Amino acid sequence: MLSYLIRRVLIMIPTLLAISAIVFIIIQLPPGDYLTTLVAELQSQGEAASLEKINFLRQQYGLDRSPVEQYLFWIAGLLQGDLGYSFEFNLPVAQVIGDRLLLSFIVAFATVLFTYVVAFPIGIYSATRQYSWGDYSLTFIGFLGLATPSFLLALVLLYFANVAFGTSIGGLVDPQYIEQPMSWGKFWSVLEHLWIPVLVIGASGTAAMIRRLRANLLDELQKQYVVTARAKGLPPGRLLVKYPLRMAINPFIADIGSLLPSLISGAAIVSVVLSLPTNGPMLLSALRSQDMYLAGSFLMIEACLVVIGVFLSDLALAALDPRIRLHGEATK
Amino acid sequence: MIRRGAIMLGALWALTPAPMNAAYIEPPSLAAEVAAGRLPPIEQRLPQSPLKAMPEGKDMELGRHGGELRFLIGRPQDVRLMVVYSYARLVVYDTKFELRPDIVEAVESDGDRVFTFKLRRGHRWSDGQPFTSEDFRYYWHDVVLNKQLSPLGPPQVLMVDGKPPRVEFPDATTVRYSWSSPNPYFLPAVAGPSPLYIYRPAHYLRQFHAKYTDAETLAAEVKKAGVRNWQALHNRRDNQYRNDNPDLPTLDPWVVQTKPPSDRFVFVRNPYFHRVDPEGRQLPYIDRVAATVADGRLIPAKTGAGEADLQARGISFNNYTFLRQAAKRNDFTVRLWNTAKGSHIALFPNLNASDPTWRQLNRDPRFRRALSLAINRREINQVIYFGLALEAANTVLPQSPLYRNYYRLAAAQFDLRTANRLLDEIGVVKRDGRGVRLLPDGRPLEVIVETAGEDTEQTDVLELIHDSWLDAGVKLFSRPSQREVFRNRIFAGQTKMSVWSGLENGLPTAATPPDELAPTSQQQLQWPKWGQYIETRGGSGEAVDDPAAKELMRLNEDWRLSVSRSERERIWHRMLEIHAEQVFTIGLIAGVKQPVVVNSHLRNVPAEGVYNWDPGSFFGVYRPELFWFDESRRTAASAAQ
């Protein structure tokens, strides 16, 4: 087991290096660089930037160096914990990202909580009472959630919340609380705004989770050990929780791998529509304006989190499910 | 224009130096600071002769201090809009788009060759330090002439015939710029929305300058800021336009308080601002301004929800009906202001296309005229703009003193017969089975119009043009792209025709530089390579070889050297005439209104105005420091509810 762990950790290093190269290449692929974006933008506002000035800036930003040099420069910085410099914000990347981390985390955490709290009981109910009236109607609602485009749902809810409750449109708090220290008023304002993104982002995830839990649980419920346990007179509730549910829960654990990165930039599109002060919209705008160090470092953090997340969920699965553990031992 | 030794008295603005003994009124929000001794009293904060300003338009009234103004911005970087709106410049445009002194007490100009600025005695930066000619000297000697900070030398607009100006600082309140040949671009650049700042807060910036700070301290600062060298640090701290450094002293009415990154930027009143109202109240009236960042697509919705007190940015004409509906619910009014662009949407045939057949075709004025005549502008206006826009070529607007019907209509009538005749004349007579004409090399006459892909409005308009062009035997395809790709393809000549907005300034006077009409910049989408050639002084691009474009260049140069108004007027008319005849750009529609949302309690925002970048600075020429909240009416209204 220990050597397996060490191997897994070591293999992360070349994986991340490969990802960093691919990320950098993809960011560099579109024609132009940040400055062409800047010029186009200045133009659209009627401002002019002379060619000389642009060349001067290109030099200042280090964009005149070759891509390979730029890549090495960036990677060397990353290894020392320096995420680079954001052209667009004129600030070090760490500062730009760090500021929004807490709110991103709150939104993601609330969404995950919502998903689990809703999906768990419904999934179990649907599986144990398969093809009942309740199963059908809950499944129907779940599919509605899965099928509705989330950005549309977001806009509808925003308008509704504004007209009905007077909630300010977009964002996570009323404007007057932005940049203010935490208070009860601010906390309440956050709660007032939070339900929309949580509902919207959670809706599709919940439906998918219900279906998976239901399918897995149905598989298990047919198995002989369940029949045996039932024959031995185990109470139904205890039986369900102790055996089939434990088996069916694997996909939830495996999901941890993808949960971690979504804490950083989850649901970028919905966040853009809702104008949430989270990291998702920032990543999108960084990619669009070719603010390459911001985008690159962002993606690298995500890649790290995915790699770590997958590693952690593998560990958790191995700990929880003897079959996986034994299988792992056997192949070695 | 500003003439030698004279300060013009405006028709709309009374600008008189207030007498020394006038009793000034302290803004209540600063009273506590003054009482506590943290701020000197108002008499010591104002210059000896503050600018007395009073809006004299209809419905304008004297205001009261206080309140917070909210508006929305699409990105944190748009915090610089506040510099645009605030519009404190050495000289500014008034609502008639004439130049007037603002920060300076007076400016004398000698034939546009020698400019002498007289500063206000006792004028102070927002941190209380004196604003003197030393700040101009620092800019000229330590920023512009410093090879490390400005490797390219002075900004282009300060160079005349390749030579920099002579800059002198006779005393603490006098600054003189002189050239041997006229530089009419100088004051407009200083008065621009993104102005040429010819002064710097020297007392603040010295700490980042290698000449004034010892290498060790500076190196520590550089390291702390995480930049490459002291030049980068200096440039970072010194960005009056970007407005991203709360520590940088300013002369604007409001000072940014929030350090980026943030989603809400707060600006507080500058206690040293140099304007007062006729009763002696220090301006601005409004204490605080808050700019909230919201996604561009949410701005109309948020504005409709009453989350902005003054909003035009991010709102377009097609939001008008929605906003009108929301206005009743959320207590605001929607005004329709004029825009000043020569064309809201225009087509740009690329005269520098790399495809030889197309280059030849695009350069044929008959071809461009035929395409223009084959557009039914009336239909576009009715279908998309409710008939409220103006059917026009890309030229000056009727409100400009230079306007003539001929310029607008010469090539903008719907006339398919002439269009077909012109195309036959060019020699593209044969047609294929679809009725599309064939080029001499056998290819069908299919025009691919590239768009920046941001706006469905443009595609809708192109769809309408498609049908009428087909009657002239021209097939139109629109190809959405992405802004950077769009521009680079045009610059490289890969694009045959593109769509964008027309002339930036459709309201010029004879004194406005006509450089937009001549090849001067790569960004002119109809002749990018010629523009590049001029911009790089022959370094790259292609030399202008079209006789009409050459004449435009010559006229542009003549305009610079001429001094008399009549001479300049003649030059402008000749240039507009050339454009009307040559149809270098095909204007479609102009005068599309800009909705402006104004809180019902916000006073002194004109009911009608021009929403324009340069000149105009958006709200700038209407002096936002004179806007104020009528709290008495607001309380009365909420009590009634």
Task: Describe this structure as you would to a colleague.
The complex is a heterodimer of chains A (332) and B (641). Chain A has 332 residues and is an all-alpha fold. Chain A is built from 17 helices and 2 strands. A two-stranded antiparallel sheet of chain A has the order 1-2. With 641 residues, chain B is α+β, with helices and mostly antiparallel strands. Chain B is built from 21 helices and 25 strands. In chain B, a hairpin with a 2-residue loop joins strand 8 and strand 9. The N terminus of chain B is likely disordered. The interface between A and B is large, with 50 and 51 residues.
Short recap of the structure:
The complex is a heterodimer of chains A (332) and B (641). With 332 residues, chain A is an all-alpha fold.
Give start-end ranges of low-pLDDT stretches of chain B: 1-21
The string of secondary-structure elements of chain A, in order, is HHHHEEHHHHHHHHHHHHH
| Residue windows where pLDDT falls under 50 for at least 5 positions of chain A | none
Instruction: Tell me the Rg of chain A in angstroms.
Output: 24 Å
Give the overall form of chain A.
Answer: globular
Helical content band of chain B: 25-40%
Mean pLDDT of chain B: 89
Any idea what the radius of gyration of chain B is? 26 Å
Largest sheet of chain A: 2 strands, antiparallel
The gross shape of chain B turns out to be globular
How many extended strands of chain A? 2
